[in-house]
Write a structure and sequence with these properties.
heterodimer; A: alpha/beta; TIM Barrel; 8-stranded parallel β-sheet; 10 helices; B: Methyltransferase, Methionine Synthase (B12-binding Domains), Chain A, domain 1; Rossmann fold; 2 domains; 5-stranded parallel β-sheet; 9 helices; globular; cobalt (chain A); Dihydropteroate_synth-like_sf (chain A)
């Protein structure tokens, strides 16, 4: 029998977002991340946060439900930078935030200033990562993204990923008192350009995690098109396929209409948009904007 | 086929990553008594260089680079023992690995392809390579250059941990250290005390050759 589908509740000071298998897909905006953005890195080092303001605006307008914030700038004080960015973004928008770092001190600094119920990105199935981060997740009443890989390479077999998911859920719930509904599994979306079989494995992992554990899932969806031409088209095709397999959220490009529209259309076909009212009002809003 | 036709076909088929055909052509060349180094230096390497150039210009994409590399690797498996017999030296030994905590390997694999294409012997330790594993592999293989790859800002600090492990083992000065990966900069490479940095695969080859020349000019072999 399939496991009961769970809901993950995220909050800012004033807004609540519910992620679930019966809910519209949750788009987590990926843009506030300096990785691979040299100019943004320089600006952050110099204390110039203006790019964040633009990124927040573009993603909110684009249709993001949650914003990911990563402040991994080399040779800086990441905890301080992350805390500052979170405070700034919370002044600009009421969307909940996904706090993204693998530096424990940075996560703690971010969680301590965050107002609401954050999503923490991320842990793996490695014991030391879980022991370092899960107490913070518990202390600050957050939800946690977990990747089913351990000390070895990313497991290419579905069985291994499902097994590690089971381990994460067992340890997080039994040893650290985290609710199963607050564990969001990242089923590991790999670049299709490096191996054409990887997406089929990931879709299988999604179906099995949904059916076996009922937990929510998210992933860095833009990764699937890495190294390929026509990335927006690939991302827009991949997301609805993943949604049909059980993915309930993704860290992705909320600024690209093609991608957001593909997600909203899939919501409708999956029965998560009653009478297509969200689809129709988005159409009207677009019409109005074009006329204005 | 004439030797000239073989070289041209080898170049063309490597360029499009036709691995079975590249192996056939390699065997055919050897049957015609063509020298292994002729096949390598006059067809395979120039073809891989062209693949790298097209990738750099954005005309080639990741899968095309990977299948060309695979085609070349198939031919090299056949040629390597013959090259060793004829005493052809590789231009240098390159030990490569993605740092501990990081599982990204596409960039590293592209660099490996370009290095092999340029005549380096590449020993790939894979991903999630711990500092002590780098130390053990350096002691075992005695490479000219070791490359640390990191794709995440959060795993870049492992460069420093690796450097410290090399220092502690007393082998820091016996090997050239290069670092790279999407978030890495020259400034960061300098900060961790690496000898070299490159922004992409073909730059890595140029930089590696230059560092090797400088080292060999300094230390009489």
């Amino acid at each position: 029998m399939a496991a009961e589908p769970l809901r993950t509740v995220l909050r800012s000071a004033t807004k609540e977002v519910v992620v679930g298998h019966d809910q519209p897909f949750c788009i987590i905006g990926e843009r506030i991340n300096p990785t691979g953005r040299r100019i943004f890195q320089e600006q952050l080092r110099a204390g110039d946060f203006s790019a964040i303001e633009r990124d927040v605006k573009a993603q909110v307008e684009g249709g993001a439900d949650v914003l990911d914030i990563n402040m991994g700038v080399p040779l800086t004080d990441e905890p301080e930078l992350l805390a500052k960015a979170i405070q700034m973004v919370q002044e600009l928008t009421d969307l909940p935030i996904c706090i993204d770092s693998s530096v424990v001190e940075a996560l703690e600094a971010g969680l301590s200033v965050y107002q609401g119920r954050a999503l923490v990105n991320s842990i793996t199935a490695e014991d030391d990562r879980m022991a370092a981060i899960l107490p913070l997740v518990k202390k600050y009443d957050a939800a946690i993204i977990a990747l089913p890989n351990d000390h070895d390479e990313i497991p290419m077999e579905a069985d291994k990923r499902v097994e590690l998911t089971g381990k994460i859920i067992r340890v997080a719930t039994q040893e650290f008192g985290i609710a199963q509904a607050d564990i969001v599994i990242d089923p590991l979306a790999m670049p299709i350009g490096a191996d054409t079989t990887t997406s089929l494995v990931t879709f299988e992992v999604m179906r099995r995690i949904r059916d076996d554990f009922g937990v929510n899932m998210t992933c860095g969806a833009s990764n699937v098109s890495f190294g390929m031409p026509g990335r927006h088209a690939l991302n827009s095709a991949w997301l609805p396929m993943a949604m049909a397999s059980g993915l309930t959220s993704a860290i992705t490009d909320a600024r690209t209409p093609q991608i957001v529209e593909a997600v909203k259309a899939a919501d409708l076909f999956l029965g998560h948009d009653d009478w297509g009212m969200a689809w129709i009002s988005a159409h009207r809003a677009k019409q109005a904007a074009a006329e204005a | 086929m004439t030797p000239e036709e073989i070289l041209q076909a080898l170049y063309d088929e490597t360029l499009v990553g036709n691995a079975p055909r590249v192996l056939e052509l390699t065997n055919e060349g050897l049957t015609l008594d063509m020298e292994p180094q002729t096949l390598l230096f006059d067809a395979l390497i120039p073809s891989l260089e062209e693949v790298g150039a097209r990738f750099e210009r954005g005309d080639f994409f990741v899968p095309e680079m990977l299948i060309a590399g695979r085609a070349m690797a198939g031919a090299m498996e056949r040629l390597r023992p013959l090259l060793a017999e004829t005493g052809v030296q590789t231009i240098g030994k390159f030990l490569m690995g993605t740092v501990k905590g990081d599982v990204h390997d596409i960039g590293k694999n592209l660099v490996n392809i370009m290095l092999e294409g340029a005549g380096f012997e590449v020993i790939d330790l894979g991903v999630q390579v711990a500092p002590e594993k780098f130390v053990a592999a350096i002691e075992e293989h005695q490479p000219d250059i070791v490359g640390f790859s990191a794709f995440l800002t959060t795993t870049m600090p492992m460069f420093k941990a690796n450097m410290n492990a090399l220092e502690k083992a007393g082998i820091r000065d016996s090997v050239i250290v290069m670092v790279g990966g999407a978030p890495v900069t020259q400034e960061y490479a300098d900060a961790v005390g690496a000898d070299g940095y490159a922004a992409d695969a073909s730059q890595t080859v140029k930089r590696a050759k230059k560092l090797l020349d400088e080292r060999r000019a300094k230390v009489p072999a």
